[in-house]
Design a protein that fits this description.
- The chain is an all-alpha fold and 356 residues long.
- The chain has one domain.
- It has a two-stranded antiparallel sheet.
- Helix 6 runs antiparallel to helix 7 and helix 9 crosses helix 10.
- It is globular, with a radius of gyration of 21 Å.
- The two termini are 19 Å apart.
């Protein structure tokens, strides 16, 4: 069995502690000055009939994610089997901190469909790059839709819009540079890693080789078929447009709010920026802080803003949890076991099973 580095558990504990502190701080910011009577009034007046169209919109976004991942993988996996992979994977992402659930989908694709772990991981990373580019586009549109205050949309002294742009820009920049490097230097890079593997049969070298080969092949496939690349971009735009409809449904819940799709874009982009930069457990705290700040920017009362922010988060989290459990429980799967096995794939030892 592969042994973790001696400092790994302690390092992970410190990271989790820092994330939990940030979660509490964000929740405290959201709930400061909230009046219980106003919260009860907002809940009593909320039009709960918007929940059904909200869920349909979120389901549509998940189906589009299935099609995008299938396109990036280039394999004929049916929508329903892929929805099972996506549902269980996003359950892990939504309930675990530090994006520890990101590797569950590559694990399931290897175990269920025989795809090499590195190939699926490459597709997931391309997905994340596309989503970061979409976040950049949405944050750019926020400045067009409304006039941002001089100090920005601040939470605890941090401008969420600016922080989101910087975070998404850095991730997108490094991602595009990595894609360019693999595309241009792919053969030489693979040769260098293979030479290193012959000199030193270390787990990090084997892992890098197992990732770079399928990543390079995926880029070559996209280059040979530009329609696939355009399709992935189009599906990314469709995913976030349909998800935005679900957000808008929630904003139609409070009577008299009168928000349209433009306001929904502002709320969702700022919320997404907050919990993308700070992936707290279940995104609690970060999600509410971003959503509440955006709603206050749009003139919503602080108590009503906090209530609506919590309802929106519970709607999204509840859908992800229910969909994931609907696929996971009948199969008798354990989320902790899936995460443990997926992380083991990242540090294969001599006894690790070779990729399919």
């Amino acid at each position: 069995m592969t042994q973790a580095p001696p400092g790994a558990p302690r390092a992970l504990s410190w990271k989790l502690a820092a994330v939990l502190v940030a979660t509490v701080a964000c929740l405290a910011w959201v709930l400061r000055g909230v009046e219980i009577a106003a919260v009860r009034e907002a809940l009593a007046a909320f039009r709960w009939r918007v929940v059904a169209p909200m869920a349909l919109a979120y389901l549509g976004a998940y189906v589009l994610r299935c099609w995008r991942l299938r396109l990036l993988l280039g394999v004929p996996i049916g929508t329903w089997p892929m929805l099972s992979v996506i549902g269980i994977g996003f359950l892990a992402i939504n309930v675990l901190p530090l994006r520890l659930g990101e590797f569950v989908r590559p694990l399931l694709l290897r175990e269920r469909h025989g795809l090499p772990f590195g190939r699926s991981l490459a597709a997931v990373l391309v997905e994340r790059l596309l989503d970061m580019l979409a976040l950049l586009a949405m944050l750019a549109l926020v400045g067009v839709v409304i006039d941002l205050p001089a100090g920005g949309v601040a939470v605890g002294g941090v401008d969420l819009v600016r922080a989101g742009r910087v975070f998404a820009g850095v991730v997108s920049g490094f991602g595009l540079l990595a894609v360019a490097a693999v595309a241009v230097l792919g053969e030489r890079l693979l040769a260098a890693v293979e030479a290193r593997a012959q000199l030193r049969d270390a787990a990090p070298v084997r892992l890098a080789l197992g990732f770079l080969e399928p990543f390079h092949e995926a880029l070559r496939s996209l280059a040979r078929a530009p329609a696939m690349a355009l399709g992935a971009l189009g599906l990314t735009a469709a995913i976030w447009a349909v998800h935005l409809l679900g957000v808008w449904m929630v904003l139609l819940g409070p009577p008299g709010l009168g928000f349209g799709l433009a306001e929904a874009l502002v709320v969702w982009a700022i919320t997404l920026a907050a919990f993308t930069a700070l992936p707290t457990p279940g995104f609690f705290g970060a999600h509410e802080a971003g959503c509440s700040a955006a709603l206050r920017l749009l003139g919503v009362d602080p108590s009503a803003a906090a209530t609506l922010a919590v309802l929106m988060h519970l709607g999204q989290l509840g859908f992800a949890v229910l969909l994931g459990l609907a696929f996971m429980l009948p199969e008798g799967l354990s989320l902790i076991d899936l995460v443990r096995r997926s992380r083991a794939e990242l540090a294969p030892g001599p006894e690790a099973r070779p990729p399919a």
